[in-house]
Amino acid sequence: MKWDKVQARLEARPEKLWSLNEMEQNGHEPDVVDYDGHTGEYIFFSCSAESPAGQNNSHRNIVYDRAAEEELKRQHPDAIISGNAVDIAAAMGCEILNRDQYLNKLQLKGAFDRTTWVWVLTPKETRNPIDKTKAGVALFGSRRDAGAYVRGNSPDRHSDLRGFRGSLRV
Questions:
Q1: How many CB atoms lie within 10 A of CB 134?
Q2: Are the beta carbons of 123 and 112 closer than 8 angstroms?
Q3: How many Cα atoms are found within 13 Å in the side-chain-facing hemisphere of 156?
Q4: Taking the model in full, what pTM does it have?
Q5: Which residue among 124, 133, 141, 150 has the highest number of C-beta atoms inside a 10 angstrom radius?
Q6: Which residues does residue 140 pair with via DSSP β-bridges, in sequence order?
Q7: Contact present, 46 and 85 (Cβ < 8 Å)
């Protein structure tokens, strides 16, 4: 991609510069990874080698969304977490990578998340199934020796190795 075209797009959208700065300041190492020919948008992803940690690890040890955060606090009032991926991404002005972006765009560019995990944007019907006899799950991705994968897990699962990756369209 030609940087002068990316730069022109950024200069025409200063609010996107703010979001890129937030990503950079929080260890996401944003980089242009794709171009949408229909909209003319350049797409930036978090490209740090491992799950971005954020300032003072504020982007790790997080649950998937606010509902999971509230449930965890209800069941385990002493649990120490840094928040939830959906709200942190929104506050930065970006979105969480979806399954396709994670597996078919990011992981084809390199070996990311070899020792960490990231929450992946989860479809509403997966997160909150219509059949209430089934527990909702949230998707997470990682890469191990066998390759990159996305799987489901309890949305309130947290660890100091679990974060998220952002996507920003400019």
A1: 9
A2: no
A3: 16
A4: 0.91
A5: 141
A6: 119, 151
A7: no
Structure tokens of 103? 């597996």
Contacts 24+ apart (CB under 8 A), 23-27: 23/52, 23/92, 23/94, 23/166, 23/168, 25/55, 26/52, 26/53, 26/54, 26/55, 26/58, 26/59, 26/92, 27/52, 27/53, 27/54, 27/55, 27/59
In contact, 155 and 67? CB cutoff 8 Å: yes
* Three-state secondary-structure class, residue 170: coil
**Cα 150 to Cα 38, 41, 54, 61, 156, distances in angstroms:** 27, 26, 22, 18, 17
Domain total in the chain: 1
Domain housing 124: 3-169
Mean pLDDT in the chain?
92
Query: For residues 119 and 130, what is the distance between their CA atoms, to the nearest angstrom?
Result: 22
